[in-house]
Amino acid sequence: MSVFKNVIVYRIEGGWSPSLTEAEAALDKFRFVPCTPSQEKSTGWTEPRGQDHGPLVESVGGQWVLEFMIEAKTLPGSVVRRKVDERCAQIEATTGRKPGKKEKRDLKEDITQELLPMAFTRHARVAVWIDPKEHRLVINATNAARADEVVTSLVKSFEGFAVTQVNTHIEPATAMSGWLSSQEPPAGFTIDRECELKATDESKSVVRYAKHALDIEEVKQHIAAGKRPTRLAMTWEDRVSFELSETMQLRKIVFLEGTDDAKDGKKEDNFDADVAIATGELGELVPALLDALGGEAAFTAAVAEPSQPAAAVVSTTAEADAEEDAPF
Questions:
Q1: CA-to-CA distance for 189 and 127, rounded, in angstroms?
Q2: Cα three-residue angle 155-279-29, rounded to 5 degrees
Q3: What is the DSSP annotation of 148-188?
Q4: At 240, phi and psi to the nearest 5?
Q5: Cβ–Cβ < 8 Å for 12, 137
Q6: Which CA distances in Å does 318 have to 92, 114, 234, 250?
Q7: What is the DSSP string of 5-16?
Q8: Stated pTM of the model
Q9: Do 283 and 133 touch, CB atoms closer than 8 A?
Q10: φ and ψ of 83, to 5 deg
Q11: pLDDT tens digits, 32-72
Protein backbone atom coordinates (compact mmCIF):
# COMPACT_ATOMS: atom_id res chain seq x y z
CA MET A 1 0.00 0.00 0.00
CA SER A 2 1.15 3.53 -0.76
CA VAL A 3 1.98 5.70 2.22
CA PHE A 4 0.31 9.06 2.83
CA LYS A 5 3.39 11.25 2.35
CA ASN A 6 2.07 14.00 0.07
CA VAL A 7 -1.65 14.67 0.20
CA ILE A 8 -4.34 16.83 -1.32
CA VAL A 9 -7.49 17.23 0.77
CA TYR A 10 -11.02 17.49 -0.65
CA ARG A 11 -14.49 18.06 0.82
CA ILE A 12 -17.15 15.49 -0.16
CA GLU A 13 -20.71 16.69 -0.77
CA GLY A 14 -22.66 15.89 2.41
CA GLY A 15 -25.49 13.91 0.82
CA TRP A 16 -23.23 11.12 -0.43
CA SER A 17 -23.35 8.24 2.06
CA PRO A 18 -23.28 4.73 0.56
CA SER A 19 -22.75 1.63 2.66
CA LEU A 20 -19.44 -0.23 2.53
CA THR A 21 -21.11 -2.98 0.51
CA GLU A 22 -22.49 -0.48 -2.00
CA ALA A 23 -19.09 1.21 -2.34
CA GLU A 24 -17.39 -2.15 -2.95
CA ALA A 25 -19.90 -3.08 -5.66
CA ALA A 26 -19.50 0.30 -7.37
CA LEU A 27 -15.69 0.08 -7.46
CA ASP A 28 -15.75 -3.53 -8.67
CA LYS A 29 -17.18 -2.32 -11.99
CA PHE A 30 -13.95 -0.39 -12.50
CA ARG A 31 -11.47 -2.93 -11.12
CA PHE A 32 -7.98 -2.62 -12.58
CA VAL A 33 -7.20 -4.81 -15.59
CA PRO A 34 -3.62 -4.93 -16.95
CA CYS A 35 -2.88 -3.46 -20.36
CA THR A 36 -3.43 -5.63 -23.40
CA PRO A 37 -0.42 -5.99 -25.75
CA SER A 38 -1.59 -3.06 -27.89
CA GLN A 39 -2.96 -0.91 -25.06
CA GLU A 40 -0.89 2.10 -23.99
CA LYS A 41 -2.49 2.77 -20.59
CA SER A 42 -4.87 1.14 -18.13
CA THR A 43 -6.30 2.44 -14.85
CA GLY A 44 -8.65 1.09 -12.22
CA TRP A 45 -9.15 0.13 -8.59
CA THR A 46 -7.03 -2.54 -6.96
CA GLU A 47 -6.84 -4.21 -3.56
CA PRO A 48 -5.26 -1.80 -1.04
CA ARG A 49 -4.15 -4.71 1.15
CA GLY A 50 -2.38 -6.30 -1.81
CA GLN A 51 -4.29 -9.59 -1.70
CA ASP A 52 -5.58 -10.90 -5.05
CA HIS A 53 -9.37 -10.85 -5.35
CA GLY A 54 -9.61 -9.09 -1.99
CA PRO A 55 -11.83 -6.13 -1.07
CA LEU A 56 -11.36 -2.88 -2.98
CA VAL A 57 -12.46 -0.90 0.08
CA GLU A 58 -10.75 -1.59 3.39
CA SER A 59 -12.40 -0.16 6.51
CA VAL A 60 -10.06 0.41 9.47
CA GLY A 61 -11.60 2.11 12.47
CA GLY A 62 -14.42 3.41 10.27
CA GLN A 63 -11.98 4.97 7.80
CA TRP A 64 -12.14 3.74 4.19
CA VAL A 65 -8.92 3.13 2.27
CA LEU A 66 -8.81 2.52 -1.49
CA GLU A 67 -5.99 2.20 -4.00
CA PHE A 68 -5.94 3.43 -7.59
CA MET A 69 -3.65 1.59 -10.00
CA ILE A 70 -2.13 3.10 -13.15
CA GLU A 71 -0.23 1.03 -15.69
CA ALA A 72 1.40 2.72 -18.66
CA LYS A 73 3.69 1.58 -21.44
CA THR A 74 6.53 3.87 -22.37
CA LEU A 75 8.30 4.03 -25.69
CA PRO A 76 11.47 6.14 -26.05
CA GLY A 77 10.64 9.05 -28.32
CA SER A 78 13.99 8.70 -30.06
CA VAL A 79 13.16 5.12 -31.10
CA VAL A 80 9.78 6.12 -32.55
CA ARG A 81 11.29 9.07 -34.43
CA ARG A 82 14.04 6.88 -35.88
CA LYS A 83 11.49 4.33 -37.09
CA VAL A 84 9.36 7.09 -38.64
CA ASP A 85 12.41 8.54 -40.41
CA GLU A 86 13.35 5.10 -41.73
CA ARG A 87 9.82 4.49 -43.01
CA CYS A 88 9.71 7.94 -44.66
CA ALA A 89 13.05 7.28 -46.34
CA GLN A 90 11.72 4.01 -47.75
CA ILE A 91 8.63 5.74 -49.13
CA GLU A 92 10.74 8.47 -50.75
CA ALA A 93 13.10 5.89 -52.25
CA THR A 94 10.32 3.83 -53.80
CA THR A 95 7.88 6.57 -54.85
CA GLY A 96 10.10 9.60 -55.30
CA ARG A 97 7.95 11.76 -52.98
CA LYS A 98 8.33 12.90 -49.39
CA PRO A 99 5.51 11.99 -46.98
CA GLY A 100 3.45 14.97 -45.78
CA LYS A 101 2.67 15.92 -42.19
CA LYS A 102 -0.56 13.92 -42.03
CA GLU A 103 1.12 10.82 -43.47
CA LYS A 104 3.95 11.17 -40.94
CA ARG A 105 1.42 11.36 -38.11
CA ASP A 106 -0.27 8.21 -39.40
CA LEU A 107 3.10 6.48 -39.66
CA LYS A 108 3.91 7.47 -36.08
CA GLU A 109 0.63 6.01 -34.83
CA ASP A 110 1.17 2.78 -36.78
CA ILE A 111 4.74 2.39 -35.52
CA THR A 112 3.67 3.10 -31.95
CA GLN A 113 1.06 0.33 -32.16
CA GLU A 114 3.68 -2.03 -33.62
CA LEU A 115 6.15 -1.33 -30.80
CA LEU A 116 3.71 -1.28 -27.85
CA PRO A 117 3.79 -5.08 -27.28
CA MET A 118 7.56 -4.77 -26.71
CA ALA A 119 7.40 -1.66 -24.53
CA PHE A 120 8.29 -1.56 -20.86
CA THR A 121 5.38 -1.15 -18.46
CA ARG A 122 5.41 1.02 -15.35
CA HIS A 123 3.00 1.03 -12.45
CA ALA A 124 1.90 3.69 -9.99
CA ARG A 125 -0.34 3.13 -6.97
CA VAL A 126 -2.24 6.04 -5.44
CA ALA A 127 -3.58 5.66 -1.91
CA VAL A 128 -7.03 7.15 -1.31
CA TRP A 129 -8.63 7.77 2.08
CA ILE A 130 -12.31 8.52 2.54
CA ASP A 131 -13.58 9.68 5.93
CA PRO A 132 -17.34 8.95 5.67
CA LYS A 133 -18.19 10.72 8.93
CA GLU A 134 -16.30 13.96 8.21
CA HIS A 135 -17.08 13.84 4.46
CA ARG A 136 -13.40 14.20 3.65
CA LEU A 137 -11.36 12.77 0.77
CA VAL A 138 -7.56 12.60 0.95
CA ILE A 139 -5.44 11.58 -2.05
CA ASN A 140 -1.76 10.71 -1.81
CA ALA A 141 -0.45 12.84 -4.69
CA THR A 142 1.66 15.92 -5.29
CA ASN A 143 0.71 16.18 -8.94
CA ALA A 144 -2.62 17.90 -9.56
CA ALA A 145 -3.18 16.01 -12.81
CA ARG A 146 -2.74 12.69 -11.01
CA ALA A 147 -5.17 13.70 -8.26
CA ASP A 148 -7.72 14.86 -10.84
CA GLU A 149 -7.44 11.50 -12.59
CA VAL A 150 -8.25 9.71 -9.33
CA VAL A 151 -11.16 12.04 -8.55
CA THR A 152 -12.56 11.55 -12.05
CA SER A 153 -12.49 7.79 -11.53
CA LEU A 154 -14.27 8.16 -8.18
CA VAL A 155 -16.98 10.27 -9.84
CA LYS A 156 -17.46 7.59 -12.50
CA SER A 157 -17.57 4.86 -9.87
CA PHE A 158 -19.88 6.44 -7.28
CA GLU A 159 -23.28 7.81 -8.22
CA GLY A 160 -23.87 11.29 -6.80
CA PHE A 161 -20.23 11.76 -5.78
CA ALA A 162 -18.94 15.35 -5.90
CA VAL A 163 -15.91 17.01 -4.34
CA THR A 164 -13.98 20.24 -4.29
CA GLN A 165 -10.47 20.86 -3.04
CA VAL A 166 -10.54 22.21 0.50
CA ASN A 167 -10.44 26.01 0.52
CA THR A 168 -9.80 28.32 3.48
CA HIS A 169 -10.76 31.88 4.37
CA ILE A 170 -7.08 32.86 4.64
CA GLU A 171 -4.80 31.91 1.76
CA PRO A 172 -1.93 29.68 2.89
CA ALA A 173 0.64 32.07 1.38
CA THR A 174 -0.84 35.02 3.30
CA ALA A 175 -0.88 33.04 6.55
CA MET A 176 2.67 31.77 6.05
CA SER A 177 3.87 35.32 5.41
CA GLY A 178 2.38 36.42 8.72
CA TRP A 179 3.84 33.49 10.64
CA LEU A 180 7.33 34.08 9.24
CA SER A 181 7.22 37.85 9.72
CA SER A 182 6.01 37.65 13.32
CA GLN A 183 7.67 34.33 14.17
CA GLU A 184 4.39 33.44 15.85
CA PRO A 185 2.97 30.25 14.31
CA PRO A 186 -0.57 29.20 15.26
CA ALA A 187 -1.13 27.32 18.51
CA GLY A 188 0.13 23.74 18.36
CA PHE A 189 2.42 24.38 15.38
CA THR A 190 6.12 25.19 15.11
CA ILE A 191 8.08 26.52 12.16
CA ASP A 192 10.87 24.22 10.97
CA ARG A 193 13.97 24.93 8.90
CA GLU A 194 12.82 24.88 5.27
CA CYS A 195 10.83 27.29 3.12
CA GLU A 196 10.58 28.72 -0.36
CA LEU A 197 9.85 32.39 -1.16
CA LYS A 198 8.86 33.53 -4.64
CA ALA A 199 8.56 37.04 -6.05
CA THR A 200 5.24 38.06 -7.57
CA ASP A 201 6.72 40.55 -10.01
CA GLU A 202 8.11 39.87 -13.47
CA SER A 203 11.43 38.69 -12.08
CA LYS A 204 9.80 35.54 -10.57
CA SER A 205 12.91 35.24 -8.42
CA VAL A 206 12.97 32.41 -5.90
CA VAL A 207 14.76 32.09 -2.56
CA ARG A 208 14.97 28.70 -0.89
CA TYR A 209 16.10 27.87 2.63
CA ALA A 210 17.01 24.29 3.55
CA LYS A 211 18.16 23.20 7.00
CA HIS A 212 18.37 26.89 7.87
CA ALA A 213 16.95 28.92 10.74
CA LEU A 214 14.03 31.04 9.51
CA ASP A 215 13.83 33.44 12.45
CA ILE A 216 16.27 35.82 10.80
CA GLU A 217 15.92 39.37 9.52
CA GLU A 218 16.72 38.31 5.97
CA VAL A 219 13.51 36.29 5.70
CA LYS A 220 11.45 39.24 6.95
CA GLN A 221 13.14 41.51 4.40
CA HIS A 222 12.30 39.16 1.53
CA ILE A 223 8.64 39.13 2.60
CA ALA A 224 8.59 42.92 3.02
CA ALA A 225 10.01 43.19 -0.51
CA GLY A 226 7.04 41.28 -1.89
CA LYS A 227 8.12 37.67 -1.95
CA ARG A 228 5.40 35.20 -0.92
CA PRO A 229 5.99 31.83 0.75
CA THR A 230 5.13 28.96 -1.55
CA ARG A 231 6.25 26.22 0.87
CA LEU A 232 6.92 26.15 4.60
CA ALA A 233 8.07 23.23 6.75
CA MET A 234 6.15 22.90 10.01
CA THR A 235 5.51 20.46 12.85
CA TRP A 236 2.20 19.91 14.61
CA GLU A 237 2.12 18.98 18.31
CA ASP A 238 5.51 17.23 17.98
CA ARG A 239 3.58 14.43 16.27
CA VAL A 240 3.59 15.19 12.54
CA SER A 241 6.07 17.15 10.46
CA PHE A 242 5.04 18.34 7.01
CA GLU A 243 5.47 21.03 4.40
CA LEU A 244 2.52 23.31 3.67
CA SER A 245 2.24 24.63 0.11
CA GLU A 246 0.56 27.76 -1.16
CA THR A 247 -2.08 25.56 -2.80
CA MET A 248 -3.03 23.85 0.49
CA GLN A 249 -1.14 20.66 -0.22
CA LEU A 250 0.63 18.81 2.58
CA ARG A 251 3.97 17.40 1.47
CA LYS A 252 6.81 15.40 2.99
CA ILE A 253 4.59 14.14 5.80
CA VAL A 254 6.41 12.28 8.58
CA PHE A 255 4.62 10.75 11.57
CA LEU A 256 6.92 11.31 14.53
CA GLU A 257 5.27 9.05 17.11
CA GLY A 258 4.10 5.45 17.03
CA THR A 259 5.14 4.73 13.44
CA ASP A 260 7.52 1.90 14.35
CA ASP A 261 5.19 0.01 16.67
CA ALA A 262 3.92 -2.52 14.15
CA LYS A 263 6.95 -3.13 11.96
CA ASP A 264 7.79 -6.48 13.56
CA GLY A 265 4.29 -7.88 13.08
CA LYS A 266 2.66 -9.60 10.14
CA LYS A 267 2.11 -7.75 6.88
CA GLU A 268 -1.68 -7.59 7.34
CA ASP A 269 -1.19 -6.29 10.89
CA ASN A 270 1.13 -3.59 9.56
CA PHE A 271 -1.53 -2.48 7.10
CA ASP A 272 -4.13 -1.91 9.80
CA ALA A 273 -1.61 -0.19 12.08
CA ASP A 274 -0.28 2.06 9.31
CA VAL A 275 -3.79 3.07 8.27
CA ALA A 276 -4.82 3.72 11.87
CA ILE A 277 -1.76 5.91 12.49
CA ALA A 278 -2.04 7.87 9.24
CA THR A 279 -5.78 8.49 9.41
CA GLY A 280 -5.73 9.16 13.13
CA GLU A 281 -2.96 11.75 13.00
CA LEU A 282 -4.08 13.43 9.77
CA GLY A 283 -7.67 13.33 11.00
CA GLU A 284 -6.62 15.71 13.80
CA LEU A 285 -3.95 17.68 11.93
CA VAL A 286 -6.14 18.73 9.00
CA PRO A 287 -8.90 20.37 11.13
CA ALA A 288 -6.24 22.12 13.25
CA LEU A 289 -4.58 23.47 10.12
CA LEU A 290 -7.90 24.62 8.67
CA ASP A 291 -8.60 26.52 11.89
CA ALA A 292 -5.16 28.14 11.67
CA LEU A 293 -6.07 29.31 8.17
CA GLY A 294 -9.28 30.99 9.26
CA GLY A 295 -11.58 28.01 8.85
CA GLU A 296 -12.89 26.17 5.81
CA ALA A 297 -14.67 28.16 3.11
CA ALA A 298 -18.17 27.18 2.00
CA PHE A 299 -18.62 24.07 -0.10
CA THR A 300 -19.74 24.95 -3.65
CA ALA A 301 -19.29 21.81 -5.76
CA ALA A 302 -22.18 20.44 -7.82
CA VAL A 303 -23.13 16.81 -8.36
CA ALA A 304 -22.21 15.55 -11.82
CA GLU A 305 -25.07 15.14 -14.27
CA PRO A 306 -25.05 12.20 -16.70
CA SER A 307 -24.23 14.51 -19.61
CA GLN A 308 -21.56 16.38 -17.67
CA PRO A 309 -17.89 15.35 -17.92
CA ALA A 310 -16.85 13.68 -14.68
CA ALA A 311 -13.87 15.96 -14.17
CA ALA A 312 -16.13 19.02 -14.19
CA VAL A 313 -17.00 18.58 -10.53
CA VAL A 314 -13.34 18.87 -9.54
CA SER A 315 -11.98 22.20 -8.41
CA THR A 316 -8.23 22.18 -7.82
CA THR A 317 -5.68 24.97 -7.88
CA ALA A 318 -2.65 22.76 -7.35
CA GLU A 319 0.02 23.10 -9.98
CA ALA A 320 2.09 20.27 -11.41
CA ASP A 321 5.38 19.91 -9.60
CA ALA A 322 8.76 18.48 -10.44
CA GLU A 323 8.44 16.19 -7.45
CA GLU A 324 6.32 13.48 -9.10
CA ASP A 325 4.49 10.79 -7.14
CA ALA A 326 4.82 8.26 -9.93
CA PRO A 327 7.58 7.11 -12.33
CA PHE A 328 5.74 8.34 -15.43
A1: 26
A2: 30
A3: HHHHHHHHHHSTT--EEE--BSS-HHHHHHHHHHHT-PPTT
A4: -140, 125
A5: yes
A6: 48, 37, 19, 11
A7: SSEEEEEEPTT-
A8: 0.79
A9: no
A10: -65, -40
A11: 999 888 888 899 999 999 888 899 999 999 999 999 999 98
